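Input/output pair, single chain:
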Amino acid sequence: MTSGTSSFYPSKNSPSKHNSHAHIAGKSTMGFTTILLLLVAGLVLSITVAVMLGPVAVAPGTVWRIALSHLPGLDQWIPVTWTRPEQYIVWEIRFPRVLLGVIVGGGLAVTGAAIQALIRNSLADPYILGVSSGASVTATLVIVFGAFGILGRFALPLSAFLGSLAAMLMVFALARVAGRISTTRLLLAGVAVSMMLSAVTSFIVTMAPNEKGIRDAMYWMMGSLAGAQWDTLLIPTLIIAGGTMILLTQYRSLNALLTGEEAAVTLGVNVQTFRMLIVIIASLLTGTVVAVSGSIGFVGLMIPHIVRLMVGSDHRRVLPVSLLAGAIFVVWADVCARLVLAPQELPIGIVTAVCGGPFFVWLLRRSSYSFGGEK
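Output:
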């Protein structure tokens, strides 16, 4: 993708006045390590409680005994002290759903952090490039009219992913002028494509032959983890983990972008190529998440801001902390979605929106907050 690895990284010999670390707020290593450990512990606790809660309560010890009994080599060492219904509820229903929440939350938060650095806009989120709208078009075709039925139970996630990929290609085509892509054109192209595809989705929903199709389509577009199954977790996990690792290797370039494009070029970043890399990764991660959970808003918009308040703006710290914080947030949002109106279930997007609105009111009132190291 580039002529050399150094094209993405700032030169160690760059003038000190352009050193990106001078612009990136940070915390001590000890504090960062403590935050990571606390978040890991919080994630384990969140997973445990989320699996425990429901119409049938399950003890925490039973939750982990059932889980560990499915690991190779451990099943013979763990005595069966649970009932068959508990086994089914914990392992087949709740654990896949909670783990999908971990994947979705982590993926959206990491993508949001990268997109905000790329566009240098604190209101940017993973859906700003129109990826979600593309996924919604093909997903509603499946839900309302049964399109792509030949794919069986994979019809919805695969069609949503293909729709997001098509939307990404449209945005790239519209944003490219004279072989170059600017951040402004990319943003405007994303908004334009999103509006057009949202109109197409609305048209498809209005043409639904029955009320159930309309209700199912609207429910999916507001996000849900109800369709989680073990055999659909592997691919999203690999994609989210791979994309996060790539972003982590490029943390210096993400930091440099916060200082502006001209400063980033001075620091040795190939801005055009790096921008394309980030957009591709962000679109892939967002398309994957939308394919398995529908559109869940505010996670990628809100979590990176909270994380920057905790650890500063250095993406070497922002990305892993965002991954954990986003996972915890979505797990608890799903718990609320399941239990607030039990036995009915809320779309998880409603819960995240209820949290996101007050958060931004608070953020606007916080005069000491800075984005990208600037007041």
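The chain has 14 helices and two strands. Confidence is low (pLDDT under 50) at residues 1-26.
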